[in-house]
Amino acid sequence: MTVEILSVGTEILLGNIVNTNAAYLSEKCASLGLSCYNQSVVGDNEKRLYDAARLALSRADIVILSGGLGPTKDDLTKEVTAKVFGRELYEDPGVKSTIAGYFQQMQSVQVTENNWKQALVPEGATIVENHNGTAPGLILEGKIDGEDKTAILLPGPPNELKPMFEESIAPYLRKLQPESIYSRMVKLCGIGESKAEDMIADFMEDQTNPTIAPYAKTGEVHLRVTAKAENEEEAGVLMKPMIEELYRRFGALIYTEDEDVELEDAVAAILKEKKMTVATAESCTGGNLAGRLVNVPGISDVFKEGYITYSDEAKQKLLGVREETLKEYGAVSRETALEMAEGAARAAGADVAVSVTGIAGPDGGTKEKPVGLVYIACRVKDNMRAEEYHFNGNREKNREYTVVRALTLLREELLKPE
Prior knowledge:
The chain is α/β, with parallel strands linked by helices. The chain has helices spanning about 10-15, 20-30, 45-60, 75-85, 95-105, 160-175, 195-200, 200-205, 230-250, 265-275, 290-295, 310-320, 325-330, 335-350, 395-415, and strands spanning about 1-10, 35-40, 60-65, 90, 120, 125-130, 135-145, 145-155, 180-190, 210-215, 220-230, 255, 280, 305-310, 350-360, 375-380, 385-390.
């Protein structure tokens, strides 16, 4: 069964607001097993809205329209959709009573005549209660050009649309589509997208149910395994062999299969399990690495201190980097990164330390040390390791990649047997 999403509002076209409703509805429809092949946005214009609704209904079984259900003259979604289905509007006494009660509760707001426009309902429509506003949702079912079609009208404000969808629309759609889609996200670090995709090429060529799809994140690869089934338990049985095979192929590169777990969460969990403390020393990332770690609830159990040593003087003063090292090898060097990590561990009294130093750009690079050159060092107790990286993004992207690579290197070192 196919669904199409039609977002209504000139303010969306002009970029005055971000169309978060479409993203939300797409995700929810996908989880219900509905196929969405098209989305579109149309302004508050009667003819263009009519044409857009007709087009959407010509290629989808169900069209979900959001926005344009308000009390003003440019709110036309209900009127135009009724016209598409060949229905007249009538004033529903139940809806009018609900609107009156809403304004009675909102004593500071006076009801105006145009508010009763929201009580007009297309003939034969199913009225969906709105517990967070005055505009009811509507479901219109009927034949268009001889085919069974459904239009679902939802209010535009997300704080009205989302609860209405959860409470009323999702159960309605679930009855139409008994199978739902369930997925697990297998997250990898320390491997590039092209390499990861090559390692699952056979899956992607022969997939039916379940399916697998790679998603590139900054410095990471996420593999979404998806199964269509009647319930979550059945979907889990279908996905299990594929996920087990992914573990055989990628091993320790997989850091989680929980969509809500980020790389810093996985690193923090290892530190807590090993009862180790950590410190960070940063130059080009300016505290972003420490910031990622501090995102983790309860990180105070293991995170000791973070040092931002952007200047050579700070590297010497706070971390004890030797002046001779800076003169001979430079601030951006393997040797400096190693001394930064060692100095951070010593100064903080931490079991583990990770350091970064590099040239984020856009300026500051040379032929010998170009923009994007980064050294990351890690010290786990008495074991030291430093790696050289070359990134080729803009300043922001280079710093993002550096943080992810630092977390990845830290995780790799923590997973080594003691």
